[in-house]
Amino acid sequence: MKKFKEVEETRKKYHKDPSLNSVHRSSLMVPELDDSIAEISFLNHFLIKRNHKKIACIITAIGKNGQKIQSKLHHIEEPRVYIFTLTGMVNEPVSNYMIEFYSVDNLFIPFPAVMVNHRNKKFLNQVHSFNRVLNDVFENDDINSNQVKESSVDLVVNQNTDTCLLFTAGPMGCKGSLEIEIENSDKIFKTVCELDVSRFGSKLISLQETFHDMPDNFKGIIKAKQPNQLLFYGRLLSGQWLKNDQVFTANHSYYDSSTVKEYWDNNQSSERQYPFFLELNNSIKIYPIASPSHLKISVYANSKDGSKILDDVHIDDLISPSNEFVDFNVNSIIEKSDIRKEDVSSYGVKAEVIDSSKMPTRIGHQLVLGGGGLESSINVVLNNPNKFIPKGRKSLKWGQIVIGGGFDSSVGFAADSKENQEIEGHDVNIVYYNKTGKIKEKNVNMINGTSLKFSAEQELQDVVDFEKLEKPDYIWCTAESEKHGLNFYSCAKNKQTMHCSGDHGF
Questions:
Q1: Total number of domains in the chain
Q2: Which of 56, 280, 419, 468 has the CA that lies 20 to 30 A from 159?
Q3: Nearest residue to 443 (alpha-carbon basis) of 460, 458, 462, 429
Q4: How far apart are CA 271 and CA 293, in angstroms?
């Protein structure tokens, strides 16, 4: 883990002089998983955002023993969506696919804005790139110098559902131990899983099988300590698997910073605002994995004119580290108030310090969206006014929208009034792309503190023939404003099974 303030210093340096410590390769790994088709999807942000006109994309299929099966070069040159179906690209069994992007121009960030999709007829799971082979030993020094546990995993274990962790080995293979603990105020479970995984191999670990004596519907905090891997940045793919249905919903894990003392220079509150999706169940889970602190957690709601329609509601205190987490349902809070759900445009989550505590730089949490089946859990971090904002920063956010094949997506743009308090609103240019290029463009005005929400099918019915989409397709959109503070969220739901999967934008 790289400390947040070190990340901030890196950002300041490349905004001052882009030629320093330039990046010319970005990459990700995509696991092959049983009973699902692995795909990647991305908008040519290299061209649209930075005007990089020639990008080389190399996709390498890697066998079960870590051997290279085949690499294929793709030229990324057009302003459109690129979709690659990885499963079936070779005839041999595959463990992982390595996707690499190369450019003569500075890419700035070694993690590309790529969505990893796994699907079958009953589900689709989407998560942005989450692990990668590092570019050199110097990046290894930078990234892997501070090892922490991984967390932010929502635990669901019962007769029908299991929680699993997918461990991936890097270019050297991995022989070591994965230490897992699950804890609440009443009980703690611990174990050590011995690993012997070939290079670029993966191992799926069932928590129900690992902890046989853990009762059904046990609620607790999951932490996993991975072995250190040279030249590899590896987060866990973690989530819920239906036991007998080849269905899962998963996200990447996040840092457990509870052993790292890193704080902002003052104690201004940390906040973030989200679209309130009327058609979905909106929940928040905050695990005690921030730097040691005592925080007051509140939620509020904004109306369609950006004013507070529900004042701060104190949900709970978060003590980190501890064995208790904060978990609340926004729909239920609104229903218990005197306001109508239909009048809520967005809601905000706020953390304030208590007593002599300091404000941690990272307060990660899960944005949980559900529609009746498996729920989507999206990892996000609260914003703080101390965060570095380049002079004249604008908003350019983009993200994936899943359509067709029995899926519809709820899409939301949030004009976060706490991220940018100095403006009244945004004039937003929204552009939709498919694999042929631009298909639709519109301009909207958003009042600060509100959100713009829609069903993808309704929004795109004039440019997409949904009846012809027998399998899921990937539309991408960009939202651009002259002012910063705009964010993107999307959640895809299977119309029959009601399983959900979503992510934030880039």
A1: 4
A2: 280
A3: 429
A4: 16
